[in-house]
Amino acid sequence: MKAITAAAISTAAITALLAAAPAKANTPPTPPGNLHTVSVTDTDIVLAWNESADDSGAVNYAVFFDDNATPFLTSGTPSLDVHLNRAIGMIPGSAHTFRVRAEDPSGDHSFSNTLTASFAPGDNTPPTAPRNLRVVSNTAAGVELAWDPSTDESRFDYRVNGTPCGPLPVSQGTTHVLIAGASDPVCGFFTATFTVVALDEFDNLSAPSNAVTVTAVG
Fold this sequence. Notes:
The chain has one helix spanning 6-20; strands at 36-40, 44-48, 60-65, 72-75, 79-83, 95-103, 109-111, 115-118, 131-139, 142-148, 156-161, 168-169, 175-178, 191-200, 212-215. By secondary structure, the chain is mostly beta strands.
């Protein structure tokens, strides 16, 4: 009779045990409960929720809003400051629904309750357009532009459009010097058409100013 080695017995026993052992169930994290607002202003909705528990000890959260399939990612932190963002419809006074997904490293997940919250009313009116854009000087050092100021109920800054490295922020001043291409081959210009816009702290963008086309001397 063929002898059975200890190694063979050990391997056979392990194989039998593995075959007999029930498959481990994929258990999702506990739901991230009590989704609620911590604070609300015209620019921010701060959300928080109860932490989820999971056998892995590691849970990541993602916050979904409205019907968007792409969430805000929040890593392992059970809170999120949702900031004003006009590109996705987050504006003063707007209402949105939120839901949190908790996910473990295996991809198992659970969802919180659904919460509807609104930004406080705020400024949704853009600044007036900058007027009378003009060339003040054109020298080898560059071109200086100037314009008549915008008005708005909120703080705002200007942006100069039309430069190779634009738009350029100009703070609240109403003049700006543009460098000629001979002085700055990367961001300088030779001939370009410029406009100026005003952008307020609520991301309201004004209409553009009149356009001016300039050929640099330098």
